[in-house]
Each structure stands twice: as structure tokens, then as C-alpha cells.
Amino acid sequence: MGRALGILGCCLALALLPLPAAPRAPALRPRRQPRPGGPSADTACKNRPLDLVFIVDSSRSVRPEEFEKVKIFLSEMIDTLDVGERTTRVAVMNYASTVRVEFPLRTYFDKASMKEAVSRIEPLSAGTMTGLAIQTAMREVFTEEMGTRPATFNIPKVVIVVTDGRPQDQVQDVAASARTAGIEIYAVGVDRADVQSLRIMASEPLDEHVFYVETYGVIEKLTSRFRETFCAVNVCALGTHGCQQVCVSNGASHLCDCYEGYTLNPDKRTCSAVDMCAPGRHECDQICVSNNGSYVCDCYEGYTLNPDKKTCSAMDMCAPGRHDCAQVCLGNDGSYSCGCYEGYTLNPDKKTCSVADVCAPGRHDCEQVCVRDDLFYTCDCHQGYTLNPDRKTCSRAITSSLVTTEESCKCEAIVALQDSVTSRLEALSTK
Q: What domains does the chain contain, in order, with CATH numbers?
């Protein structure tokens, strides 16, 4: 079965000691050294998310003080992991002739709580039913109900079995079923452990999944080796990524990205400021002002920016101090024009006013005579006419006087003479 974890050049290894009449365990491999002058392993290497189950042997052959060493090993392993609900989840199982799930994957998501639970584990004392322990892990621990994440999440399922004896049940078939189900098995043997049994249960390649230590006193040496095994190299932390702004680690590779307001150039490494004022990129009501990968909104003349910093409202251009009209300001949707009081006229500068000539043609409604009176006027009539009651039009005047008899006779003589002259003129005109 292919390894669920990308080891990425970090080999799990330990100084292994030979067992009498038993195959040798894997030889020590060189530890991967950090790049000179580069970040430490802690910054360049971080374990990938796992669903990790420890299965520890607490049979009668494991002395109480040795079992305490196992618990220290578990606690130190927990310290090396990136523990959390969305990162690595951990379960611990304890077995002898029976199996006990100390806590499943769903119980603890912080290191302190896990280590406290590990410190309370008690040994079971009898038998070494390793096959039963692996089978219980498959049926009762690696389930979504108990905290295993769905297959669609692609989270590796990993088992680390720690034992010092030979299994007393058929471990081969059970381990094969577990591997077929996608569970990666590491087998750690201590002291009297049967290395052949370790090889039967472990995943391929065996030299990276089977380990042996002479005593429980040195089992802690495995901690750093497992940390390297579960390491996912953080290329972004190595400083060799070439990204101008943001480096996103992607397993053994990486992707470049840009800060908000910037876009990745075709070279997939450098970034350019986005034209945030391009259509569809901003929410400005009137004017968008680009500002180095960001933008601010502004308004046309005569409008003011609302508190939402996006929309605009027409200013009251006739408010005091906003216009330069001498007399009257007339607001007009963000603009204004000037006017004058009655009796005044707007000067050519369109701002100031002068007294109007109210008697100028077209400015008054007097029939004959307009008489100006500062800002106002009155109507009058020519001699022989009198002003009508409407105070605008005029009528001919009617005069009356007392006439004496003598004057009356003169008048009649004059009239008679006029009639005679008129008659003679008419007679002459007909000849």
C-alpha cells in the first residue's frame, strides 16, 4: 500500500540493535539537516493533518515503570504534533488480552487535555491481543461517529502500535484488512518484541514502518524520528519560493499569491496593483479615485459624499457661505444661479444687482405717462386727459363754464359764419 503521508525526504530511522536469532530491523539513516543559514526544522517542517491512533501494549510483560516510559513517549509525541480539530486528531488505545479505547479522535483537540488523559492511563496486565486491538481500531475508532474525518477530506489514517511481545492472535489478516482500508501502520517493537510479527502488521516499505528499540528507556528517541516522518516541508518557510508578496504552501510545492488589491502577473510570481476603479470593481456613486491597489470615492462639484463613503447627495449650494449672489440664490440640483429682488435687475456679472428703471419701455403698464418713484412708479396723463379709476389708462377731459348772453351771441355769430364759409366752399367745389 502506498504511504498515506508524503515523507518528502524525511526518513524515519533509529539506531537499531540486533536481536538474537531474528532479522535485523532497518539501519540508521542520516537525519535531514536544515539548510545552512535557513530556518530550523520547526519552521520549515510542520506535520500534515492526520487521524492518528496510538495502540500501546500494557500486557503483564510490561513493567509498571516501563509503562510510565510509554506514557512519556506518547506525551512527547503529542508535543511534536500540530494538534487541533482541523489539523491532527489523536486517539489512544490500550490493550492486553482485552482492548480499551482510552479516548477517541473526537474527544480532545488541545495538547494539554490529551497529555492529562494519557497520564491517567492504567495498564491492563494480561495477554497480547494485537490483532484484536487493530480490529477494534478499525471498527470503533476509525469511524466518523468517533471523530474520523470523511474520506472526501483526504486526511491520512495512521496507527502506531507499540509492543514488547509476540501477538497471541492472528494479526496478519487483520493488519492486511486495515491496510486495505487505507490505514497506514507503524510497528514499534521494544525489548522482547518479535520483529517478524512487526513486519507482518506494518505498511510498506517496511524499512520505514518497522522500528525496534532495546528498552523502554530509549523509546523517547523515536519522537524526533516520527516528527520527521510526519513532516510536510514548508517551502514558503525556506525562503526559496520567489514569490513577490504571498507564498502559499501546498505540500511539497507552493503557489504565489498577492495582497488584496493586487493581481498575480502571468509569471505567477510578481504582483501588480489592480485598477480598483475599473467598471464593476468599485461601489462609488459618482467618482472613483484609485489609490495603489485600493480606492476612495468622491463626488462631482456641487455634491457631497455621504457617511457611507460611497454615495453622493446634492449640496445646498444656497446655504450661507456656499454662493456669491448679492441678493437672491436659486438652488438647482447641485448648482445655483443668482437673482434679484423686485425692482432690481441682475448685472452682467450674474451675481450683483442694480436698481431697475421701472419706467423703461416694457416695464410698466401706464397708457400715457410713467412717473418713477425710486423702486416703484405711478401712471399719469397728458394735458387735456384725466386718469381713469384703474390708475393706468386716460380719458379726454370735459370742461364746463358759465357763458354770458353777449358771449353766447358772439358764439352763435361765429358758428353762423363758419357754416356760411363751409357752404360757399362746398358750392365752389361743385362748379
A: 45-232 (3.40.50.410), 235-273 (2.10.25.10), 316-356 (2.10.25.10), 358-397 (2.10.25.10)
